[in-house]
Automatic annotation (TrEMBL):
Residues 8-106 form the GOLD domain. Its main location: endoplasmic reticulum. It comes from Sakesphorus luctuosus. GO terms for cellular component: endoplasmic reticulum membrane. It is found in: Endoplasmic reticulum membrane; Membrane. The gene is Tmed11. It is a single-pass type I membrane protein. Belongs to the EMP24/GP25L family. Keywords: Endoplasmic reticulum, Membrane, Signal, Transmembrane, Transmembrane helix. It holds the Pfam family EMP24_GP25L. InterPro entries: Emp24-like, GOLD_dom. The chain crosses the membrane at residues 164-183. This is TMD11 protein. It comes from the Eukaryota.
Amino acid sequence: FHIGEREEKCIIEDLPSDTLVVGNYKVQRWDIHKHDFLESAPGLGMFVSVSTPSGEVLLSKLYGPQGTFSFTSYLSGEHIICFQSNSTRLLAIAGSKLRIHLDIRVGEHFFDESAVQAKEKVDEVHVRLEHLIEQIQHVSKEQDYEREREEKFRKTSEETNSNILWWAIVQTLILIFVGIWQIKSLRDFFIAKKLV
């Protein structure tokens, strides 16, 4: 994604609790002379901050033009990951665009393929099995979290449907009452004018 040099950009990640999140990023600065993004942005760093659904700051740190950050969510919900450059240019001068390449991996414990190849076959199977078990646990956590969200949504829907039903009943009673009142008023009017 692209941002201005002094602009802050935030991404929302919906995470279950106890989930490892690892992010890799790389910043490129726009070069006016080449009309292209430079391969790297030396001297430019990124402030990375992560907030929980309750607003608590999990991570707030300054990194270089490329780096890796990680955190573990302890609450389930929408976590906000924000990026802002550490540019000290004045706002009027800082018209440069930045391109940020971002890769976020959620709930994945990475295994080193080169370390696996160096070990014996039994160790390789053991490491792959542990990795699969971690992935199964992550999928299970995701499913539990989705079940919680679905249950909350269902309760909200049922409450809304109940409120709509009561509102319809109240409207019907009001219409009946107004109709009876109008008939009575018209009847009294006709009797007063001696039309009936």
